[in-house]
């Protein structure tokens, strides 16, 4: 008995700008959407006085959020810094913690930061051709340390969901900052102290 009547489909992914077409879920994250996540709050306020820049965009093709389905999409992180900290995604755990994810680097350069609930931390250099495997239970955040868009393709279980709150409250243990042009991990002075 055939119970799944969903039809096969194909999408076009631009390898130049990451745009996925068709796309039924285009998300734009602005600085004001994650202002509290950057370490240098003076730099945040200074930037917001002039502009509220789009920091990154997600193109996703939504399918039913049920077990067995996969969500595919691309993320485009624009280059830049907030103070000395590189532009990054909000970062999240999956709401359904026991779900994994795969990232494939297409353009640009950055770091995939991963953190386990007990605080175990990894930072994986990312570039075109890098395949990153995010195991179940690990929070993940991508950081653009280059001078151009960082574009990567993602696949994850459609029932995974997103938990941004845990990261918004506690942050990651380390920040990626520019030290004389070199991306450098430093301890996050506010780790575990976010309000
Ligand atoms: Fe994810």
What is the string of helix and strand elements? EEEHEEEEEEEEEEHEE
* Helical coverage, percent range: under 10%
What are the segments in which pLDDT stays under 50 over at least 5 consecutive residues? none
In this entry the ligands are: fe (ii) ion
Q: Going across the biggest sheet, name each strand in turn.
A: 3-4-5-13-8-11
Q: Using the alpha-carbon principal axes, give the shape.
A: globular
The main sheet comes to:
6 strands, antiparallel
Q: What proportion strand?
A: 35-45%
Global mean pLDDT: 95
Total E-strand runs: 15
Distance between the termini: 52 Å
The count of helical stretches stands at 2
Radius of gyration: 17 Å
The computed structural class is mainly beta
Could you outline the blueprint of secondary structure elements for this entry?
Layout: E1 12-13, E2 20-21, E3 25-30, H1 41-50, E4 54-61, E5 70-77, E6 81-82, E7 85-86, E8 101-107, E9 109-115, E10 121-127, E11 131-134, E12 139-144, E13 150-157, H2 165-170, E14 174-179, E15 182-187
Antiparallel strand pairs: 1-2, 3-4, 4-5, 5-13, 6-7, 8-11, 8-13, 9-10, 9-12, 14-15
The protein binds fe (ii) ion.
